[in-house]
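Lecture 7 notes: from sequence to structure.

We start with a single chain of 381 residues. Read the sequence below before looking at the structure.
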Amino acid sequence: MPVTVDDDLFNRAGELKQQLVAFSQQRRYERAFDDVLADQHDERFLLDEHTLMILWDYFVLEHRLRNGRTVVEQFVAAHPELSEPEQRMLLGWRDVVQGPFEVQGRDGPALIVVNLVDELTYRVRSNMGPSVFRRTPHRSFLLARLVAVGEEWMISGPMNVWRAQERDVAYKMALEISLRAPEAVYRNPEKLTQAWELQRQDRERFVRFFGSDLVVVPGDQVVDRMADYHAFCRAKASGASASTAAGDGTTMFELPPNVVDAETVAMIYDEVDGLGFYAEFGLVEAAFADPDLLRRRCYREHTLAYLQDDSVGPLVLRRLAARDPERASVVFRRLLKKPRFDWTRDGEELLRAYKPEHFRQVPRPRISPVSERLAAYARRR
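Now the structure, written as tokens:
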């Protein structure tokens, strides 16, 4: 059971939240919030007060402004009188827990809930007082955003409540979050361990089906080849648990037009990076085999794009270079006009310079394991 928090700390958290909201309502943030509205809200639908409050809470705690900082970070910087624990608590609010929760019951002023996404238990309180929980009976569902206050959690922004009979609404949202935002699942260390194991098993199936962890096919055949692979997986997984079958994230994906329209696409299933699709791989592969091809515009442009596009991980360039490091050195000497470039000596530094975001991220599996009840919901919908 989660540890309870001293009332004075929780009351202080409520005071700080009110001060933070007031700070965020300065005129200097209006344009930035308008940008968030334009990006997050579909103008075809009326913006109600509840949605506006959720977007504002996201803007204050999570959205990074043009200077790279969040509003809550600027609030902390503007208040040097805050104690160190208060600063840590406020900055911790950038890490919001959200998603549907199933209500387990009351514990004094707190509500005990289980997150349908990460399956962890949270002891939740509201800075508006315990009366807000009168409409959250046992087995009802709560849609809310939570921030940490010590070992407990405080509701941040508005909340929605669904009756027990409306469980499918909660299950649908939890399933969508699990597949769209795996990091929400990985809050649970056991889920992260399970995800790595599921990815390892899925990669083994991929290699058995295709004969290698790297396969090159025409772009217009990728969808069909993956459909065949998924049929193979379903047949192999017929005896697997429902959780494992539903957790196979590779069965739910959409390919961008540049992949489908490409002359060739490499499907690479790496142990760490998971399954990736690389458009026009054939041109880049040919350039690494024969650097003289870089004199031709199409080879040069696509090879350079593999380096400059931060959405293309370093994995594919490492693989191509590993086949012949000397020729890889020639490729980058010509692309970058650096006659002394040596892949063995300079390759990793080059990748870090062009793909900084990849190196800042903690490696994560690309498969999201889901609970038995979400898997059951996915099967029957």
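Strands lie at 97-107, 110-115, 121-125, 141-149, 152-155, 160-162, 214-217, 265-270, 274-279. Keep this in mind for problem set 3.
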